[in-house]
Design brief:
Blueprint lengths: L1 H4 L10 H8 L2 E6 L4 E3 L7 E7 L2 E6 L5 E7 L4 E2 L1 H5 L7 E4 L3 E7 H4 L8 H20 L6 H11 L9 H7 L4 H13 L3 E4 L2 E4 L2 H6 L3
Antiparallel strand pairs: 1-8, 2-7, 3-6, 3-8, 4-5, 4-7, 9-10
Length: 211
């Protein structure tokens, strides 16, 4: 378990003695694609770290459609904010691929968070999440093409092994519009599809589309 914990960013370069104690109240579980980790509104005592795979945090609209909110990958943690604030999970979470995820008991981990390096890392992580949400909200002022271009330049992780219909929902456009713009960018050799992910080939050309 210690070696698995070392793959989580929160636990990089932490002494084995501390990791051994944390491992005593942690549990490793394998998840299948689309398997639910927790639902919005559930109250629990755990937060999670991703060893391998990816996780989608999402909301549900009145019609029962999934609204993607955040995507997390290897080394990321999620569900921690709800524990710090002692409230229910504000979003649902599901595994997007075959994943190994560590579930950590926050009530036992809590004694560590006020001390470095955990306190510094958690503050930085939460700050980065807030900044990303603020930046992503800027997309609403752009048309569909510029929303996609801005996201490609500033949020490349969102284009790693993500289903197109979820990406379209997150960018507030139809799947058909997304496919059309992506095809145009690929034909112009600005992007490419590599291992089920979208990668930027010509960043300068992409930046010019925003001007």
């Amino acid at each position: 378990m210690i070696e698995k914990l070392k793959k989580i960013s929160l636990f990089f370069n932490i002494e084995d003695k501390i990791l051994e104690e944390i491992s005593s109240f942690s549990h490793l579980k394998k998840y299948n694609p689309d398997e639910i980790i927790f639902y919005e509104g559930e109250k629990d005592k755990y937060f999670y770290g991703i060893v391998t795979g990816s996780v989608l945090m999402y909301d549900i609209d009145l019609k029962g459609n999934i609204i993607p909110k955040n995507q997390f990958g290897c080394g990321d943690i999620f569900g921690l904010i709800s524990q710090i604030q002692n409230r229910e999970y504000c979003l649902s979470a599901k595994s997007e691929s075959d994943s190994e995820i560590i579930r950590i008991d926050y009530t036992k981990f809590q004694k560590f968070i006020s001390n470095p390096p955990f306190s510094d890392r958690i503050i930085k992580m939460l700050s980065n999440q807030i900044l990303q949400e603020m930046e992503f909200n800027k997309l609403q002022k752009y048309d569909a093409t510029k929303r996609l271009v801005y996201a490609l330049l500033n949020f490349p992780k969102k284009f790693i092994r993500k289903k197109k219909y979820l990406l379209a929902k997150e960018l507030n456009m139809s799947p058909e519009t997304l496919s059309r713009i992506l095809s145009k960018l690929r034909n112009e050799e600005i992007i490419c599809y590599c291992e089920k992910s979208i990668k930027v080939l010509d960043e300068e050309k992409l930046k010019n589309l925003l001007s």
